[in-house]
Design brief:
499 residues, binds adenosine-5'-diphosphate, 7-stranded mixed β-sheet, Nucleotidyltransferase, domain 5, single chain, globular, 22% strand
Length: 499
Amino acid sequence: MAKHILAVDGGTTSVRSLLLDDKFEIVDIAQKDITQHYPRPGWIEHDPEELVSFQLETMRAVLRNNGIHPSDIDAVSITNQRETALVWERSTGEPIYNAIVWASRQSNNFIEKWRDQGLDPLIRERTGLISDAYYSASKIAWILDNVKGARERAERGELMAGTVDSWLIYNFTGKQRFVTDVSNASRTQMFNIHTLDWDDDLLEAYGIPRKMLAEIQPSDGDFGDLGFSFGTAIPIASVMGDQQASLFGQACFQQGQTKMTYGTSGVLVMNAGDTPKLVEGVTASTAWKAQGVPVYDIEGVVFSMGKTMQWLRDDLKVIHDAKDSEWYGGQVGSTHGVYLVPAFTGLAAPHWDPYARANIVGMSNATTRLHIIRAAVESMAFQTRDLVEATLTDKDLQIPELRVDGGAVNNNMLCQLQADVLGIPVIRPKVTEATALGAAWLAGISAGVVGGFDEAAELWNVDRVFEPQISEDEKEEMYDGWKMAVEGSKGWAQKVKSV
Ligand code: ADP
């Protein structure tokens, strides 16, 4: 029987398991949507038991549907939604609260409190992050403050706190292993990217006891095996947070290589090499530690990427399907000066303005829905340019080309616009499942299925290269208009009292 890799992908809207053969071709995918709980406006939670049971169901389904026995699996890889935080009892493994999802804002007041205590510069220096409720620390602090008796129990060592990878592994291994990897740890706002360990000064300032936290492993470290869940001791050979895994799956192994993921939200990630690099407006994280070597990244997150298409579809009702945006937007060659800034929930990197609100500007009575749809697609390209510009404020860095993935890259118009707006080639690989693939490659490397990074890079194949087609002047004129539109969106919720 040919050997296989089982790639576990614990996402935010769905959990999936992919079966890959020994050539890393995807044989099959099983998927299950997870329930999104919205207890209050701005809060998003997941049921921790569901995260485990649905994940296991998809793992079993993909084996069963393909007649594969667990002993035909060489290794398991795990990639997962990052920052989402859980707290559970050490003695029983029972969660004491739901998983608080990365996008949830219920812990904003901790961020303000820590800001008032003057912690922001220390957080930035130690963790590479810009203090925000998005990261795990404030979510764990919120659970400790809001669940009765939790703080005392945490101090007595009765509770464990972790990200989704830790929670899955803890359950998959029958509570034997309480571990995480450097890429997930570096998105908690508790991890020191210089020492690759939890930061005691920050933990003390946050009031989070170190004994609640998992043992940190390299991304190709020892995470236990599936003996408890599958009766066969298949090793969990790699763990990586989703964005870092997709950097890996895009074969961005050299410093400066950069990928952009156009999902519901958008994330630009650059391989920053073997030392952390702090660049204004964007964050620094540990990308992975593999074969003993840590690699760092620079990341910029945009809240509304593909989500803008969902808004056109579900709220504005001008398209039936996200992919229609390409056809409609293509009917007009230009927006004729119309811009849509999708700051529905504020602006993330590099603007960091929670009070910004979305706008559509520059309309005339010749403007139709086609121009607005095109402006929405263009907003994805312009937001990416904002991230690229922020990253390039460090004059040592260069981005000669951009590798792209995520649901929206099937949109050729978007990819062409992106090349035009950046003035560099945009490269779409054949397999755009970069996240699951990246973690699977690393598992393959550590299980000896792939020789190493060079061999993994050879598995990455180009589907299409989009070359820039507009002049330098046109490119800058388009972008100047965008910058003005963004300025108009900033601070809106503070300036306009009726918001
Ligand atoms: P996630 O992993 O964040 O759930 P995906 O990578 O699956 O997201 O991408 C889905 C997003 O991409 C949705 O927000 C959808 O609106 C958008 N999208 C999908 N196809 C297209 C397309 N052809 N053009 C533009 N946007 C698209």
